[in-house]
Amino acid sequence: MSATILGIESSCDDTAAAVIEDGYVLSGSVANQHVHMKYGGVVPELASRAHQQNIIPVVETALADAGKELKDISAVAFTRGPGLIGALLVGSSFAKGLSLALNIPIIDVNHLHAHILALFICRRGEKRPLPKFPFLCLLVSGGHTQLVIMKSHLELEIIGQTIDDAAGEAFDKCAKVMNLPYPGGPLIDKMAGEGNPYAFSFGKPVVKGLDFSFSGLKTSFLYLLRDRQLLDAAFLENNLNDLCASLQHSIVDILLSKLTHASANTGIKEIALAGGVSANSGLRDALLKLGRKHNWNVYFPEIQYSTDNAAMIAITGYYKFLKKQFAPLTITPVARFDQL
Questions:
Q1: Domains located in the chain, CATH noted
Q2: Beta bridge partners of 137
Q3: Rounded distance between C-alpha atoms, residue 141 and residue 145, angstroms
Q4: pLDDT, tens digit, for every residue of 3-25?
Q5: Which end of the chain is less crowded, N or C, counting CB atoms within 10 A of the terminal residue's CB?
């Protein structure tokens, strides 16, 4: 079935739109919100206002870059959640308006599900390996850490998840206590490349099964930094690269240890990484090394589709369109989902 899907993403601080045609990405447009940097994190009210300002030009740019007009769109896919409720309301309301004006269906998309399906984003004529079903996906983002078995594009099973903080949250909060600017995760990744990953050790959680925990690691990092600075006021400045490298090594080790157990338990050797933290070079390199050791087939989304983007919303919308999984106009966004 031929379909042209307009995807809209507004879950946090990026306003994004993209066009997917018959499963291939044609365009993507993003408006970033730099206003949050001086606050050390996203301010929900400011994010909502910026989305209202950005959404029309972002959609217009995505359509123009794709060589499409509104009359060419088969359906509008939008992020329903999880995310900031005010930000989500802007995207969902805009999608509903287009639906009414153009008499086309709307498709609600789970943001986390979309991160996984970002693995399938490709351009027409592009040849690259795609994961085969069933595959095991380590989903790692700022707010979520999960192990998911993907049985098809739209059928999945969560077999492990964080019981407290997410891996991305651990990166960002530890970056904040090191006085690194927001967002801190990418800066830790960059500095880790210049440091010794074995310089410092931090407490690691003991969690049964395939679930994760990162709150203890954050606490251990905070206490080490506090205690060392009491002895040496210049400790942070003199050891920043080593601290970043050691922190990143600890987080990656926790993630990949659980992934290894999940692969052994399920027998699945098709292994994928998704979510905003999948852009982390240390995690990617370690997973590739582990994949060679265990004879896994390893897959990553392209870097530009690792973090929040609208192409992942549009591709998820495309697969739901094929199954006629449309949403009613009465649907409302949700800040949290119990599951994917």
A1: 4-121+305-322 (3.30.420.40), 135-300 (3.30.420.40)
A2: 148, 272
A3: 6
A4: 999 999 999 888 999 999 999 99
A5: N
